[in-house]
Each structure stands twice: as structure tokens, then as C-alpha cells.
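> example.struct
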């Protein structure tokens, strides 16, 4: 286990280094001048040159990359080109907002997918299983932002049960926080739950065809009991893999959903920074998202060894 963890940490570090090079490189090829955007089109060339020097944009690319990475390692994310405010505090605030949204959406997706996906597999030869499978296909085809608009139309406009948008910190008003979290979390969680249920169905079907499950059923166990006692552990491995992939999908989906529901999360911060040509904010936000995805992938790799210890020893006991 120690060797596996050490190898995963090394892989994480190398992946972060390569990702930082790619993110920094992409930012440099984008058209436009951040200093010109910050000062406006009527600013003089001398004022633009002074601001470029203040931003460090007149330095060579390698020096700017080293300065940026060095700041990240010191937990100094720099200052915004537009507002000149420190990026770190506002990024942490936005990260907490997105964390609540993505976490709630993931819980909804898992709560929906596990029972429905298992039922679709167990009842795959029955009408109920076919109906659930058809509904999951419809859910897969619906984008998260469209699901959000439909939920707003139904529950906020017509029924008036929940607010259509906005965000209240949980410490300020827990009840309003939950009311404002329900619709955006559902718009993400329902779509991802439909996707995940398809993978759960496939994994459970594969396990149900294994000899040890058929033997358990031959001994008198029902399909659900045989699956619960002998199959769920093996079915969990591909499902955990998909969960890690879905986190990245949820983070990407949150960018659009936060706009739909006017939520001040990382997605809104990223889109505003792109629109304002605030490249340092874009770089920092993207690296935070990359770090989150890589950390989850590393955690999943470790979980593989917990679920099935043979994976940590190459299949040897």
C-alpha cells in the first residue's frame, strides 16, 4: 500500500507540472493584451507599457512561468489584473460555493444511480427494467443547463416553491441556503445520476453473469440477496472509476449551471476572468480545477486497493 501511495503521489506531481505548462502556454497564445483591456482602448502606449511592467508581462515567458509557479507553491496566487485584489481569498470563497454545489449534486447522483442502476440490471428482462432504462437514456440526453431551466420553470415560476436563483452562505441563513441549493444541485445531480445509472447497470449485469453469483442463486438465494452478498464488491470497481470521471464532468457542468442560477462560484469567476482577459485569474482557477480532478483520481486509485487488495499486488495474494 505504501508503494502504491508513493507512486500515485509521484504521478500527481508530474501531472500537475505538465498541466501547469499546458495551462500557462494556452494563456500566452490567446489574443489581446491584459494591460490594454485593464486600461481601456483610449489609454496611451506609455500607460499600457507601465502597467505591463507592473504585471510582469514584459518579462520573458520562462521567467513569468517560474514566478507564477513559485507563487502557487507559496500559496500566493497573485493579484487580479483588473481589480488588483488578491486572488487567493476570493478563489477560496468561490471554491467553497462550488464545493457545496458539486458535493450536493454528487450525492444526488449516487442516491439516484445505485438503486435505479441495480434495479435496471436485476429487472432487465421485465417491463419495469426497460422503462427505467428508457428514462435514464432521456436523462443522459438532457444538458445540465436545460435541466436547470426546466426546474426553474416548474418549481420557481409555476409552483413558486423554491427561489429561481441567488446564493446565501449557510452560516448566514441555513434555510435559505438549502432552498437556493436544491434546484442547481438537482439540475446537475439528475443528469449525472442518469449517466451513472447506466454504468451501474452494466457493472451489475457483468457480475450477475459470473459463476459465483449463479452458484449462490442455485443454492437458493434470490437475485438481490446473491448480488448483495457476493457481487457488489466486484461491481463497485468500475462504478468508482466512473465516479471519478463524473467529478470532472460536474465541475465543467457547474460552470454553466452557476450562470443559470446566478451562483458566485468558481465557474462564474472563471467566465468573468475570461471575458475581462484577466489571465492570471484564469490560470489560477484552471489549476485549482486540475488539482481537484487529479486528487480525486489518486484517491480512486487508492480505493481500488481497499476494495480489492489484489490490485495493489498485481493480482497476487
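> example.seq
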Amino acid at each position: 500500500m505504501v508503494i502504491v501511495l508513493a507512486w500515485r503521489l509521484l504521478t500527481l506531481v508530474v501531472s500537475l507540472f505538465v498541466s501547469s505548462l499546458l495551462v500557462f502556454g494556452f494563456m500566452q497564445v490567446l489574443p489581446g493584451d491584459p494591460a490594454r483591456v485593464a486600461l481601456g482602448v483610449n489609454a496611451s502606449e506609455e500607460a499600457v507599457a507601465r502597467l505591463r511592467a507592473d504585471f510582469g508581462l514584459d518579462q520573458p515567458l520562462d521567467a513569468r512561468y517560474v514566478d507564477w509557479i513559485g507563487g502557487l507553491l507559496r500559496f500566493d496566487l497573485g493579484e487580479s489584473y483588473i481589480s488588483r485584489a488578491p486572488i487567493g481569498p476570493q478563489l477560496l470563497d468561490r471554491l467553497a460555493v462550488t464545493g457545496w454545489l458539486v458535493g450536493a449534486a454528487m450525492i444526488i447522483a449516487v442516491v439516484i444511480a445505485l438503486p435505479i442502476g441495480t434495479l435496471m440490471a436485476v429487472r432487465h428482462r421485465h417491463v419495469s427494467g426497460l422503462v427505467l432504462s428508457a428514462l435514464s437514456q432521456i436523462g443522459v440526453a438532457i444538458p445540465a443547463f436545460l435541466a436547470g431551466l426546466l426546474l426553474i420553470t416548474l418549481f420557481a415560476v409555476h409552483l413558486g416553491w423554491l427561489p429561481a436563483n441567488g446564493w446565501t452562505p449557510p452560516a448566514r441563513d441555513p434555510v435559505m441556503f438549502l432552498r437556493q441549493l436544491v434546484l442547481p444541485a438537482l439540475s446537475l445531480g439528475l443528469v449525472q445520476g442518469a449517466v451513472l445509472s447506466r454504468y451501474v447497470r452494466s457493472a451489475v449485469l457483468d457480475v450477475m453473469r459470473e459463476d459465483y453469483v449463479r452458484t449462490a442463486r442455485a443454492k437458493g438465494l434470490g437475485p438481490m440477496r446473491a448480488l448483495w452478498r457476493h457481487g457488489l464488491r466486484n461491481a463497485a470497481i468500475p462504478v468508482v472509476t466512473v465516479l471519478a470521471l463524473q467529478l470532472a464532468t460536474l465541475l465543467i457542468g457547474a460552470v454553466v449551471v452557476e450562470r443559470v442560477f446566478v451562483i458566485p462560484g468558481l465557474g462564474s469567476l472563471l467566465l468573468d476572468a475570461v471575458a475581462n482577459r484577466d489571465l492570471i485569474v484564469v490560470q489560477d482557477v484552471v489549476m485549482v480545477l486540475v488539482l481537484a480532478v487529479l486528487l480525486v483520481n489518486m484517491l480512486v486509485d487508492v480505493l481500488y486497493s481497499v476494495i480489492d487488495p489484489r490490485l495493489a499486488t498485481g493480482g497476487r495474494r
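> remarks
The radius of gyration is 24 Å.
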